Amino acid sequence: MSISLLLIGAILLLYRQQQINRFKHINSKLQKSDERLHQALKGSDSDLWEWHDSNQLISLDNRGGVLGAEPTFTLAIAELPLHPADMDRFNKTWLEFYGCQTDVLDIEYRYLHPQDRTWHWLRINGRAVEVDSQAGKVIHAAGMYTDITKKRALESEVNLLAQAFENTSEGMLILNVNKDIKISNAAANLILASHKADLAGKPFIELVAESTEPFDMDDVFDKERFWTGECEFYCIDGSRCPVWMNVSTMINDSAESLYYVVVFSDITERKHSEQHLKRLANNDTLTGLANRSMFSRRLGQVIEAAKQHDETLALLFLDLDRFKHVNDSYGHGMGDALLVEAASRLQGCLSDEHLLCRFGGDEFVILLRDAKDIDTINHIAKQLLNQIEMPFKLYGREFFISTSIGISIWSGDDQTPETLIKNADLAMYHAKEEGRGNFQYYSAERNAEALYHLRLEADLHKAIAANEFEIYYQPQVNVDNNRLAGVEALIRWHHPSDGLVRPDVFIGIAESCGLIVDIDRWVLTQACIDGARWYKEYQQDFLVSVNVSTMHFRQPDFIDFINATLHRTGMPAKCLSIEITEGVLMREIDIATQHLLALKQLGVDVAIDDFGTGYSSLAYLRTFKVNTLKIDRSFLIHIDQNQADQAIVSSIIELARNLSLEVIAEGIETPEQLAQVVKRGCHIIQGYYFAKPMPKAELEQHMKQYL
């Protein structure tokens, strides 16, 4: 009997051990499976979650580090760090899942990452593990969550590129490796009078009717990798459309072609304009200027006359920079309006003895008579540049372009009219190579002038350290009480070998070579040193005005430098006036608004210099934080005789009065000019009538009669 019991016990013990081994084996497999799952999830920015109704808590397994450094997170649904904009949507989806209205949970939302404290995107997927059918609710759920921040960002970039492709103003086609059209954008469909379905799969060569430049499909696509030129396309409706086309190749790492990109714009209107221009005889019908044929005849006559009278001529060749962008983007109507306005501005810079011609397209040619003085030519060229650089307001839009100018000189040599034009044209391309928006000479004079400027530029680098600069001050007098209202600081350069160099020469060089900011800051510092001493000595609140260049004004640390200079020199902010031209303000509206507000907060006075000579907007003038308008001397030279100048000056003074601004008349030289501005309400005067710009020591003697 005892043997039987022992045998049964042994069998039971053996069976129990087998069960234990089997359980351990299964548990080991489960652990390995769980580990493999977590390893897989770790590489995919994913991990597991589980929720129980019994404690209303969700457990987030974080072994992959998706949510930060903590290995697990356990919190209530309401404690999830959701983005405020996603809370309602998340709660609605969760309640639907919890109430068994949906079988699965699938939601994307933003959460605040515990480590970098930025919003990440998370996607939660899951199913109900256990459901209370009678209560109609989930009592146990589990699933997986994934950080999809990168995926969301990539989708956003893809959508942005797709929108840019679809909404660009130029037609675009993407071809596959067989040169068949794969995708077209809206502009392409508009130009070709087609729908996307009409072009999809169509061989590109079937679109090309003819091209001005040789266009070989195999050479362009398989060898050149890039081609640009003029073509005609067959439209779907059977018509033909001239286009300007660029073809480029997309290649892989092995330099194999994957796709081809064709970008084109409709140039139908431009072609019509070109045909119309060919029919013109003497005058350009758009601008009213002389056309090419008339200019060529007139140039020949002037050269013959110049030979008889030993006269020097200058020919300026102008090409409008970025005009093609305006023309292609906004149409020829906008381009024509811009050309008319540009022609008017150019004509306004010239006297009647000079001849302006629209040479073709966006090119103009100017013949200057009796052009012996290089400085005069430079002055006119700078005026032309400034006029074209001012904003063009056309049909509710604002455009900024520039012009490149080439200059050739005729001085009695054997140059033909064609050679003179060709040399100016070559110089114009040289100007474009130098960065556009400038003028260059083609002549021995150009080389000499360029060498002189290069020498001055090299000397400018040493001028501050060598103490070659000096500030002259010009008084500003209040005629109401015959007291000094202020002084304007004007820089002078005593060159060691050339003597006194004109400011309009070296300031332009300083701007082109990037030294203007250092010079501006030197002037500002010296003026503040002098102003602080005068304030302590005389206890008078007259202003010291300092001109600020465009480059200096747009510097990010402009305000910081002024503030530091005031503190360093002890100059009261109320005694400093910053003079800025209206052109600078209108070109840098956002920066101007910020800097002017900061200057007002510092207590620094701001004056708009040369008011009325540049482009200005009364709407911006109303909001700009300025204190003073300075009437440019160009309106005052003939004010005692010219009614138009009188009306302009009266308007400026009345405008300043209505805006509670001070107004200063600049460049007053005669009693007649003084009487005209005073009787119109301007009482602060600057000009030779009272005093020329003078050194500091001379100014301090001059001050005694006003203080």
Automatic annotation (TrEMBL):
Pfam families: EAL, GGDEF, PAS_9. SUPFAM superfamilies: EAL domain-like, Nucleotide cyclase, PYP-like sensor domain (PAS domain). PROSITE patterns: EAL (PS50883), GGDEF (PS50887), PAC (PS50113). Residues 105-160, 227-279 form the PAC domain. Residues 453-707 form the EAL domain. InterPro entries: Biofilm_reg_signaling, EAL_dom, EAL_sf, GGDEF_dom, Nucleotide_cyclase, PAC, PAS, PAS-assoc_C. Residues 311-444 form the GGDEF domain. NCBIfam families: GGDEF, sensory_box. This is EAL domain-containing protein. It comes from Shewanella phaeophyticola.
